[in-house]
């Protein structure tokens, strides 16, 4: 019978895990070196989308052919610090192998189970807490230059439809009724209903963590140096003990897992946001700008433009070029937009080569449960991942086949 659990990492995944365990009557200690919702975590600055239909893995078929051209163009949403390439290769090779069509189909099916009920999972986690005020429900759109660009994207759209995420096609006239300030550049769109987004992801995570503490959960501030047996050692000398330990440290999970004998394939897919505060105009729902591959989300204090993938590891400082690109791209969407001030941000998506998270016990340390690697979808699937991690800790049956999420699958 599990009575005590330590959860390492207070991003969306760790906070959701801790709160589900607390509700099950477990004594939970949540540990982080920063406050929940602080800018250093990926859960702070993301696009806030509860992307139910995001079932297409990052490694899409045909990607290998596109990458060299993208890396050479300053207008493409992919950046690489070339010195980092040798360190990236062990992750990049299996990542590219996963872009084969058969793999894509299998991965998409697992993603659909993870994302499908994400809005309901958020509503269930946040119900009765101040966090529920940050959940918005509504449409999610994809904007295309024209109908042929939409048809060119047919593999993704067919995949979504096949997995039960149906959509409506909108021509320019219908689209501009919904988004009247949209530039001429975008002539076509698809609309997916029954989606959701967070009006402030950082405040949402902080509100859930506050509720957890006010309801009897414990938060310890400190940086974990190592996990040994049932103990968690912090850099300041503190030692915490519990029956089970959940590792939910996002993109930083790999170094702790490695010390336990695991060989995690986890990379930081760095992403950026440009947050336009008090803009002159706000669209009514979030949308993906498909040619520029970034998301625009109406949030509480402004318009967040988020996206870009940059490979440069966990320690390199943020780059300027991705922010320049986002500024240029949002002008192409709303040429007349003005705003009072702006915030820029870089964060680390915890990404695996097959776009699927690591969930379950580590073979060499079975009392440690992994719950990390949710890549571009960590906000969407965080509450579900946390709930399943809690079920695993408690020895309960998990409500999906999690063999594809085995943390040792790349060993
Ligand atoms: C630009 C961008 C846009 C995105 N948009 C979306 C979106 O619209 N929808 C979506 O679903 N997802 C989106 N994502 C992805 C999503 O933000 C992440 O997948 C998710 O936030 C990961 O959550 P996490 O809890 O696993 O990690 P994090 O939020 O990074 O939290 C990990 C925590 O672990 C702590 N930690 C690490 N190591 C230690 C240690 N040794 N000791 C103590 N604490 C430690 C860190 O301090 C941190 O607080 C986006 C990401 C980016 C970068």
Describe the main β-sheet briefly. 10 strands, mixed
Helical percentage: 25-40%
CATH architecture of the largest domain: 2-Layer Sandwich
- Count of beta strands: 19
Quaternary state of the chains: single chain
Q: Which ligands does the model contain, each kind named once?
A: flavin-adenine dinucleotide
Q: Could you report the average pLDDT, rounded to the nearest whole number?
A: 95
| CATH H-tier superfamily of the largest domain | D-Amino Acid Oxidase, subunit A, domain 2
Number of domains: 2
Q: How many helical elements? A: 13
- The span between the termini is 30 Å
* Rounded radius of gyration (Å): 21 Å
Shape: globular
The assigned structural class equals alpha/beta
Percent strand: 25-35%
Quick rundown:
The chain is α/β, with parallel strands linked by helices and 411 residues long. The chain has helices at residues 12-23, 42-45, 63-72, 85-97, 101-116, 118-126, 147-152, 154-162, 172-178, 201-214, 253-258, 321-333, 378-393, and strands at residues 4-8, 27-32, 49-50, 78-80, 135-144, 168-171, 188-198, 218-221, 224-228, 231-234, 239-241, 244-247, 267-277, 287-289, 294-298, 302-311, 341-351, 358-362, 365-372. It is built from 13 helices and 19 strands.
């Amino acid at each position: 019978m599990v009575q005590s659990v330590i959860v390492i990492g207070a991003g969306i995944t760790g906070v959701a895990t801790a709160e589900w365990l607390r509700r099950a009557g477990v004594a939970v200690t949540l540990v982080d070196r920063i406050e929940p919702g602080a800018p250093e975590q990926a859960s702070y600055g993301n696009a806030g989308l509860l992307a139910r239909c995001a079932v297409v893995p990052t490694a899409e078929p045909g990607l290998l052919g596109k990458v060299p051209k993208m890396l050479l163009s300053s207008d493409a949403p992919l950046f690489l610090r070339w010195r980092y390439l040798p360190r990236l290769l062990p992750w990049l090779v299996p990542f590219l192998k996963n872009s084969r069509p058969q793999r894509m189909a299998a991965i998409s099916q697992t993603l659909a189970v993870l994302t499908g009920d994400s809005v309901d999972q958020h509503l269930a986690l946040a119900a009765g807490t101040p966090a529920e005020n940050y959940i918005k429900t509504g449409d999610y759109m994809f904007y295309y230059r024209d109908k042929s660009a939409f048809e060119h994207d047919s593999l993704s759209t067919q995949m979504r439809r096949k997995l039960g995420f149906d959509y409506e096609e909108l021509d320019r006239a219908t689209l501009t009724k919904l988004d009247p300030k949209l530039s001429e550049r975008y002539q076509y769109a698809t609309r997916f209903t029954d989606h959701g987004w967070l009006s402030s992801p950082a405040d949402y995570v902080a509100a859930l963590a506050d509720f957890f503490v006010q309801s009897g959960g414990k938060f310890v501030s400190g940086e974990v140096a190592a996990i040994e047996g049932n103990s968690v050692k912090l850099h300041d000398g503190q030692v915490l003990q519990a029956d089970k330990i959940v590792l939910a440290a996002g993109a930083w999970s790999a170094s702790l897992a490695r010390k336990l004998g695991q060989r995690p394939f986890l990379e930081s897919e760095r992403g950026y946001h440009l947050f336009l505060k008090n803009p002159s105009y706000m669209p009514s729902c979030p949308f993906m700008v498909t040619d520029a591959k970034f998301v625009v989300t109406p949030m509480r204090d402004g318009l967040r433009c988020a996206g870009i993938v940059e490979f440069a590891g966990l320690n390199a400082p943020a780059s300027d070029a991705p922010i320049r690109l986002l500024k240029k791209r949002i002008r192409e969407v709303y040429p007349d937009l003005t705003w009072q001030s702006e915030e820029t941000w870089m964060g680390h998506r915890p990404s695996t080569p097959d776009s699927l998270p690591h969930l379950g016990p580590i073979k060499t340390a079975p009392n440690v449960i992994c719950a990390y690697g949710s890549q571009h979808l960590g906000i969407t699937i965080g509450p579900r991942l946390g709930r399943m991690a809690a079920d695993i800790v408690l020895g309960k049956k998990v409500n999906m086949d999690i063999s594809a999420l085995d943390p040792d699958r790349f060993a």
